């Protein structure tokens, strides 16, 4: 029940600055923008920014998950506008009164009456056909751990809640991304308590099963034709009792701290790719599993290389004579230089392929190096070069060479 109650008190859409009907891409873009602005690394010592960063991360963890977002929207819609009211001691912010009855729309499940004496009541009159009643019951069963009958039942409320998944970003130079590297990042947020190792109990002690709910986390009671379960008031829905809480984390099993994480970036990672680090996200409460951490990789442009899949591309300036007469060029690669032979008569803009000198592939092997030759024209010639080039132009014309002979625009 705890997550739903938190959802009722928090507008995750407002936290991210998006509309309730925002698309998944809009939510992702809004989160990434805020995460960059509010990240503790960008705001050292700013407690307000750190707290805002945590709220934004929590909002993204719910809205980025289609199932969580659907449940959040349904929960908020159900309790919108005060349509449900919760009485004192009910444990609900609305919907069910303190006696376990439903208040709203002139009906009360506590007495099945809308005014004076008791009246005959048909569930189908309220919910429509049987299918509708079943759907409504399923929804309330999910929110309030509805049971059929007395006693207790083990539900999701009795299980410690897994920590939220987190997402962060890091930027790598082009060559490190292509060859692979290990990057150390700093992450601020809930992490397992180092004193109690996440149990919430003082070192040397252990949590015990709650005697009130027998470890179920919920207690149930019948109200007329309905059976309701609610979080155990003794253990607050956790199913366990801690007699001696850990003095460092106050029994939560998690503390907010900044930690350094080594991220192994595989060779060949591309801009925008996400790397998943299992169990490195937000810590779960009282020893529950931690969420996962997703690291979004941004790759800076390189002044020499570009990529096409696993192939590495480079443009090499050459002279006209090198193309006409042929040459061997010294060309850079990710690891040193390599000689590339240019055949005589090579045309400007031709791409030469060098096998196995590209980006390493995750499945094994390496892409190729694609070398494109581009003629560089001198901006000025001295007298000797001018005379030589003029003589060549005369000889070229006498030999019958016409560079535009096959050009479509010549006709």
What does this structure look like?
- With 411 residues, the chain is α+β, with helices and mostly antiparallel strands.
- Among the domains are: 156-300, Urease metallochaperone UreE, N-terminal domain (HSP40/DNAj peptide-binding domain), CATH 2.60.260.20; 305-402, HSP40/DNAj peptide-binding domain (Sandwich).
- 26% of the residues lie in helices and 23% in strands.
- It has helices at residues 2-9, 12-16, 24-38, 47-63, 66-78, 123-127, 130-144, 174-179, 320-325, 383-398; strands at 166-172, 181-192, 208-209, 218-223, 226-231, 240-241, 254-265, 274-277, 293-299, 305-308, 311-318, 327-332, 337-342, 351-354, 369-375.
- Strands 10-11-15-14 form a 4-stranded mixed β-sheet. Strands 1-9-8 form a 3-stranded mixed β-sheet.
- α3 runs antiparallel to α4 (47-63).
- It is elongated, with a radius of gyration of 34 Å.
- The termini are far apart.
What topology, given as strand order, has the largest sheet?
Answer: 10-11-15-14
Report the span from N to C terminus. 80 Å
What is the CATH superfamily classification of one domain?
Urease metallochaperone UreE, N-terminal domain
Helix content: 25-40%
**What percent strand?**
15-25%
- Average of the residue pLDDT scores: 77
CATH class descriptor name of one domain: Mainly Beta
Main location: cytoplasm
Organism: Williamsia sterculiae
Cofactor: Zn(2+)
Protein name: Chaperone protein DnaJ
């Amino acid at each position: 029940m705890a997550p739903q109650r938190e959802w009722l008190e928090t507008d995750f859409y407002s936290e991210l600055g998006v509309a309730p009907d925002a698309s998944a891409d809009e939510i992702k873009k809004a989160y990434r923008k805020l995460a960059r602005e509010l990240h503790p690394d960008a705001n050292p010592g700013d407690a307000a920014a750190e707290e805002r960063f945590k709220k934004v991360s929590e909002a993204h963890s719910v809205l980025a998950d289609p199932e969580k977002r659907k449940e959040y929207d349904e929960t908020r819609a159900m309790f919108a506008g005060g349509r449900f009211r919760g009485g004192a001691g009910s444990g609900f912010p609305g919907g069910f009164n303190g006696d376990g009855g439903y208040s709203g729309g002139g009906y009360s499940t506590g007495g099945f009456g809308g005014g004076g004496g008791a009246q005959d009541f048909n569930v189908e009159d309220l919910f429509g056909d049987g299918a509708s009643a079943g759907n409504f019951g399923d929804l309330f069963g999910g929110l309030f751990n509805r049971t059929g009958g007395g006693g207790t039942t083990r539900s999701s409320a009795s299980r410690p809640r897994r920590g939220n998944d987190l997402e962060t970003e890091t930027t790598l130079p082009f060559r490190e991304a292509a060859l692979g590297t290990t990057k150390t990042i700093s992450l601020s947020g809930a992490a397992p308590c180092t004193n109690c190792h996440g149990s919430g109990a003082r070192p040397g002690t252990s949590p015990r099963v709650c005697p009130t709910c027998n470890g179920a986390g919920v207690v149930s009671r019948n109200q007329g034709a309905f059976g309701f379960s609610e979080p155990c008031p003794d253990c607050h829905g956790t199913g366990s009792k801690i007699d001696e809480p850990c003095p460092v984390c106050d029994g939560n099993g998690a503390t907010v701290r900044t930690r350094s994480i080594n991220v192994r970036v595989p060779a060949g990672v591309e801009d925008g790719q996400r790397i998943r680090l299992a169990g490195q996200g937000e810590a779960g409460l009282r020893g529950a599993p931690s969420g996962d951490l997703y690291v979004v990789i941004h790759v800076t442009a390189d002044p020499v290389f570009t990529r096409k899949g696993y192939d590495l591309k480079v443009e090499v300036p050459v002279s006209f004579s090198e193309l006409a007469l042929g040459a061997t060029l010294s060309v850079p690669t990710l690891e040193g230089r390599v000689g590339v032979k240019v055949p005589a008569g090579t045309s400007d803009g031709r791409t030469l392929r060098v096998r196995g000198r590209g980006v390493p592939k995750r499945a094994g092997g390496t892409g190729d190096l694609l070398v494109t030759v581009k003629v560089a024209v001198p901006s000025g010639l001295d007298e000797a070069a001018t005379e030589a080039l003029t003589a060549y132009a005369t000889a070229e014309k006498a030999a019958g060479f016409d560079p535009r002979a096959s050009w479509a625009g010549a006709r």
